[in-house]
Amino acid sequence: MTEIKSSNYSIFVSKNISKEIKKFLKANKRGYSKLFVLVDENSMKYCYPQLVSEIEQFRDAEIIEIESGEENKTIEICAQLWATLSDYGGDRNSLLINLGGGVISDLGGFAAATFKRGIDFITIPTTLLAQVDASAGGKTGINADNLKNEIGVFANPKAVFVCPDFLSTLDARQLLSGIAEIIKHGLVADAKYWKKIAECKFADLELLENCIIASIKIKNEIVQKDPMEKGLRKILNFGHTIGHALETFFMEEKSQKQLLHGEAVAIGIICESYLSTKVCKLKERELKEITRFILSNFASVKIEKKYYTRIIELMCHDKKNTKREINFSLLSDIGKCEINKAATSDLIKESLNYYSKQVSVFRK
Ligand SMILES: NC(=O)c1ccc[n+]([C@@H]2O[C@H](COP(=O)([O-])OP(=O)(O)OC[C@H]3O[C@@H](n4cnc5c(N)ncnc54)[C@H](O)[C@@H]3O)[C@@H](O)[C@H]2O)c1
Ligand SMILES: [Zn+2]
Question: In this structure, which topology does domain 173-363 adopt according to CATH?
Answer without folding.
Answer: Dehydroquinate synthase-like, alpha domain (1.20.1090)
